[in-house]
UniProtKB/TrEMBL annotation:
Homotetramer. The lineage of its organism: Bacteria, Pseudomonadati, Bacteroidota, Cytophagia, Cytophagales. This is aldehyde dehydrogenase (NAD(+)). One of its GO terms (molecular function) is aldehyde dehydrogenase (NAD+) activity. It is an enzyme of class 1 (oxidoreductase). PROSITE patterns: ALDEHYDE_DEHYDR_GLU. Keywords: NAD, Oxidoreductase. It comes from Rudanella paleaurantiibacter.
């Protein structure tokens, strides 16, 4: 793994990779600083427009061959990728933790997600099913089949620097697509590491150059992908603002989008909840990844009869949190990604105070020898109102908003009363409440859970949300259909030509 983990302050070449070869013509670099200690990890060369065009053309040509490889064979290559990630799980997990700032356990868990989605994709490679249909015409047969799209552009965010790429890439690869990955400019090293890990697999299987590609850079590089008619599908993870721009640009050229955008997730705690189960789930959901998950628990809607008990338990639990170097397994919470994120945290704290909120657990920026990067903040809890502007907004930081309810209908209305619709949960032992929450009159989110938190989705289910979350679905279930095109086929095996709807056309 020494060849993958960069040396401090070394320049990593290049910013452009196809898995088998590396290209770069730029002299511009992205400086990757660790939020853990503020140290410069490496400088990564960015992709020029010429680099980008070369990668896209290489990928487009590779697709001509890759789409003809039998899907089970493509699955076998993905299986081998999964084995490589098993070998490098510990080292890659540490790199994720150090470059992004999440706890080591979360970094290892993210690599495990890559392994799991590889396993899922292997099975999927033999299950890309279509349907058969009965024709209204005699001696005719109808069916549908699914074909690969072409070049899939993947724009990933810093908070899950490798897992979300794999959700897209491994499914797209078994579907017969080729992938061009534009990682976050805040976490380029983990992306380069992933490309290096799968490089041997690609070479050993004589995979066409360009099947798995990487381009590095900032907003302009992402815009090249979204505007490029050679890119059949753009899968983008990020803010709602970013998603609006991507969606409009891709739609203008009649391309396809898969958008995974912001979340403003709530947990309802019923008077019928088992609080011994609920409290750990709330705390992990609110402070995991330092509040930088799209599925982070941001709002807590508590029945008035258990409100004070829940508040006291949470204050006690927050008092036991250990904040510090995420590579030390005894710490629960690491840093925010950078000082810009700290500024966002402080702005949200000020907005809560101006709105009249009261902090149950006080906020603050941590200082001292253990926090030299300036990116460590205290997870905090504020009593708030759901209709406040700051509560309606997603702040990527560990701030939990606490509010009361009286009836289950009121709780569900509060849960749904935000622009985003990603993940939601209810803690209750009341069957009627649970079923109402999961019904058409319940949560309006893409993910609705009972007696588990809002974060920690498994790869077997389709991941994504509604409303301003974008409506996309990745990972499990039938999310694979987003990476393929449907084709309806009708075969006439008779000796006459009957027309549909009984139309007569005699000549």
């Amino acid at each position: 793994m020494d060849s993958i983990l960069p040396l401090p302050a070394q320049a990593v070449k290049p910013g452009t990779s196809t898995g088998q070869q590396f290209w770069h013509t730029s002299d511009k670099t992205i400086d990757s600083y660790s939020p853990v200690d503020g140290k410069l990890m490496a400088r990564v060369y960015t992709s020029t427009r010429a680099d980008y065009d070369r990668v896209i053309e290489t990928a487009r040509q590779a697709f001509e061959q890759w789409r003809l490889v039998p899907a089970p064979r493509r699955g076998e290559i993905v299986r081998q990728m999964g084995e490589q990630f098993r070998l490098y799980k510990t080292d890659l997990g540490k790199l994720v933790s150090y470059e992004m700032g999440k706890s080591l356990q979360e970094g290892l868990g993210e690599v495990q997600e890559i392994i799991d989605i590889c396993d899922f994709a292997v099975g999927l490679s033999r299950q890309l099913y279509g349907l058969t249909m009965h024709s209204e015409r005699p001696a005719h047969r109808m069916y549908e089949q699914w074909h690969p799209l072409g070049v899939v552009g993947i724009i990933s965010a810093f908070n899950f620097p490798v897992a979300v790429w794999s959700w897209n890439a491994m499914i797209a690869l078994v579907c017969g697509d080729v992938c061009v990955w534009k990682p976050s400019e805040k976490t380029p090293l983990t992306a380069l590491a992933c490309q290096q890990i799968i490089g041997d697999v690609l070479r050993n299987n004589d995979v066409p150059e360009g099947v798995s590609c990487l381009v590095t850079g900032g907003r302009d590089t992402g815009e090249w992908l979204t505007r490029d008619p050679r890119v059949a599908l753009v899968s983008a993870t990020g803010s709602t603002r970013m998603g609006r721009a991507v969606g409009a640009t891709v739609a203008e050229r009649m391309g396809r989008c898969l958008l995974e955008l912001g979340g403003n997730n709530a947990i309802i705690v019923s008077q019928h909840a088992d609080l011994n189960v609920a409290i750990p789930a709330i705390v992990f959901g609110a402070v995991g990844t330092a509040g930088q998950r799209c599925t982070t628990t941001r709002r807590l809607i508590v029945h008035e009869t258990v409100y004070e008990d829940v508040k006291a338990r949470l204050a006690k639990a927050y008092g036991q949190l250990r904040i510090g170097n995420p590579l030390e397994e005894t710490n629960h919470v690491g840093p925010l990604i950078d000082k810009g994120a700290v500024e966002g945290y402080l702005a949200a704290v000020e907005a809560v105070q101006q709105a009249g909120g009261r902090f149950v657990v006080e906020p603050g920026v941590l200082e001292g020898e253990a926090y030299t990067s300036g990116c460590y903040v205290r997870p905090c809890i504020a009593e708030a109102q759901n209709n406040w502007a700051i509560v309606q907004h997603e702040t990527f930081a560990p701030i939990l908003y606490l509010m009361k309810y009286q009836t289950i209908d009121e709780a569900i209305a509060l849960q749904n009363g935000v622009p985003q619709g990603l993940s939601s949960s209810i803690f209750t032992l009341n069957l009627r409440e649970a079923e109402q929450f999961l019904s058409a009159a319940g949560s309006d989110c893409g993910i609705a859970n009972v007696n588990i938190g809002t974060s920690g989705a498994e790869i077997g289910g389709a991941f994504g949300g509604e409303k301003e979350t974008g409506g996309g679905r990745e990972s499990g279930s039938d999310a694979w259909k987003a990476y393929m095109r449907r084709q309806t086929n009708t075969i006439n095996y008779g000796t006459t030509l009957p027309l549909a709807q009984g139309i007569k056309f005699d000549i």
